[in-house]
């Protein structure tokens, strides 16, 4: 049962008819006392609350009622109905536990979309399925791993994909945010419609409107032909806004209007167009901190993160690294026509211990470079460690001594001492880190007269 709370009989009647036409059971209350009585007496699955509840326009009556509702039933989702003048108050309501806010005059389809999304999320709670069960239910084969945190994410994708809930994907660079966005689209009701990717970090402020909304011929000096914007390309489908944390303040305002009203104008045209899209955003920045610093609009933040998915860094799920390595190797077998390609168990174990600050992207690049540079079909630790060291040198992360300042033997002895110290003189781990066998390390220890503890073998 949906509870509508508004003192205006016309609003109550309109919303009741709208919901009943969609076969969604609903009831209405005209006063806070009546609303709280219904909430306590009946199982209410969702509340639609107008902030300007009485003849006053401050919205404070509605805000107090929101607090009271959450005291009676903290789990019930609440949609706030608000005008532009009370957007700041609506954001305050989101902090108090409201799930969404809809602008007046509302668009029926937009309001129904929000209602159905929140009801679906209420009805579909996590079940803690196995990876096999998830693969049987959803299209997730392109996401590799079985770490419990990843399984929770895949479960969330399965629950939210059929809705139109806006999703914010966070995580370090290279953790696979785009793959998660694609999985949401592929498992949604929009899967046969366009999936449009937009890197907001690569769009300048001056080109934002033209890129996102399109332009007509003659809209500005270089507009020689009409151009379709990304929102129009994504119509009926999903738009993936990557690096949303890089968007400047003026562009944030323009984006917010589309997400609020689901309408926009093509640059150079006065005709308003409707955006029927699912919005998925991603960032590797902490938007909460940016909001506090005034660099990201708070109302936009709450508009895009009804659902937040945080991707763990690859070093936080090391058990998935061997699975990813084997997946990449299988792909490279086909790409480079080398069906015998493989990786030794020792190399898999060594890679599972790498910090990999670049996450999955860095691991993929490391494997592909190693395959290209090695003539062997069975790659060992030394093949990967050589490419990892070379990459660090290119990025300036590893400073090599100047030629003539140190001999090759001195450099090798220095690295052996560092590896021993780092791994607390455990011979096997130091050898793996250096990309050599234990017997090779023993020979070098003897060669350079480096003391070692035989009990650490």
Automatic annotation (TrEMBL):
Pfam families, per database record: AAA_lid_14, HTH_8, Response_reg, Sigma54_activat
GO annotation, biological process: phosphorelay signal transduction system; regulation of DNA-templated transcription
Entries under PROSITE patterns matching the protein: RESPONSE_REGULATORY, SIGMA54_INTERACT_1, SIGMA54_INTERACT_2, SIGMA54_INTERACT_4
Domain Sigma-54 factor interaction: 143-372
Domain Response regulatory, residue spans: 1-119
Record InterPro entries: AAA+_ATPase (IPR003593), AAA_lid_NorR (IPR058031), CheY-like_superfamily (IPR011006), Homeodomain-like_sf (IPR009057), HTH_Fis (IPR002197), P-loop_NTPase (IPR027417), Sig_transdc_resp-reg_receiver (IPR001789), Sigma_54_int (IPR002078)
Keyword Acetylation: no
SMART domains: AAA, REC
4-aspartylphosphate: modified positions: 50
MF GO annotations: ATP binding; sequence-specific DNA binding
UniProt entry keywords in alphabetical sequence: ATP-binding, DNA-binding, Nucleotide-binding, Phosphoprotein, Transcription, Transcription regulation
Signal peptide: none
Name this polypeptide is given: DNA-binding transcriptional response regulator, NtrC family, contains REC, AAA-type ATPase, and a Fis-type DNA-binding domains
Lineage start: Bacteria, Pseudomonadati, Bacteroidota, Chitinophagia, Chitinophagales
């Amino acid at each position: 049962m949906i509870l509508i709370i508004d003192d205006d009989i016309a609003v109550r009647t309109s919303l009741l008819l709208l919901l009943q036409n969609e076969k969604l059971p609903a009831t209405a209350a005209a006063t806070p006392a009546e609303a709280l009585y219904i909430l306590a007496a009946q199982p209410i699955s969702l509340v639609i609350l107008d902030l300007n509840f009485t003849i006053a326009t401050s919205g404070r009556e509605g805000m107090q009622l929101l607090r009271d509702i959450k005291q009676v039933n903290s789990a019930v989702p609440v949609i706030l109905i608000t005008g532009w003048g009370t957007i700041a108050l609506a954001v305050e309501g989101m902090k108090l536990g409201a799930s969404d806010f809809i602008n007046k005059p509302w668009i029926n389809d937009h309001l129904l979309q929000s209602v159905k999304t929140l009801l679906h999320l209420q009805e579909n709670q996590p079940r803690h399925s196995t990876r096999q069960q998830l693969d049987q239910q959803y299209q997730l084969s392109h996401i590799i791993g079985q770490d419990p945190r990843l399984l929770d994410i895949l479960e969330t994708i399965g629950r939210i994909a059929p809705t139109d809930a806006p999703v914010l994907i966070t995580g370090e660079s290279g953790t696979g945010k785009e793959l998660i966005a694609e999985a949401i689209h592929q498992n949604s009701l929009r899967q046969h419609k366009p999936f449009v990717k937009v890197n907001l970090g690569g769009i300048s402020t001056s080109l934002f409107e033209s890129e996102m909304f399109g332009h007509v011929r003659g809209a500005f000096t270089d507009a020689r032909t009409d151009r379709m914007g990304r929102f129009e390309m994504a119509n009926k489908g999903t738009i993936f806004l990557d690096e949303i944390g890089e968007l400047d303040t003026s562009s944030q305002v323009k984006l917010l209007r589309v997400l609020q009203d689901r309408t926009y104008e093509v640059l150079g045209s006065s005709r308003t167009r409707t955006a029927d899209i699912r919005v998925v955003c991603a960032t590797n920045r902490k938007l909460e901190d940016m909001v506090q610093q005034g660099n990201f609009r708070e109302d936009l933040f709450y508009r895009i993160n009804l659902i937040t998915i945080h991707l763990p860094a690859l070093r936080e799920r090391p058990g998935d690294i061997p699975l990813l390595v084997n997946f990449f190797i299988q792909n490279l077998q086909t790409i480079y026509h080398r069906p015998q390609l493989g990786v030794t168990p020792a190399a898999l174990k060594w890679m599972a211990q790498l910090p990999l600050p670049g996450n999955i992207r860095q691991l993929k690049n490391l494997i592909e470079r190693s395959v290209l540079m090695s003539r062997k079909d069975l790659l060992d630790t030394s093949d990967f460690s050589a490419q990892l060291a070379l990459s660090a040198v290119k990025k300036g992360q590893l400073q090599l001594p100047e030629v003539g300042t140190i001999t090759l033997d001195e450099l090798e002895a220095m690295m052996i001492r560092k590896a021993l110290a780092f791994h607390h003189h455990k011979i096997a781990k130091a050898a793996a880190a250096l990309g050599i066998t234990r017997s090779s390390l023993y020979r070098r220890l003897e060669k350079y007269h480096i003391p070692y503890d035989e009990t650490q073998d």
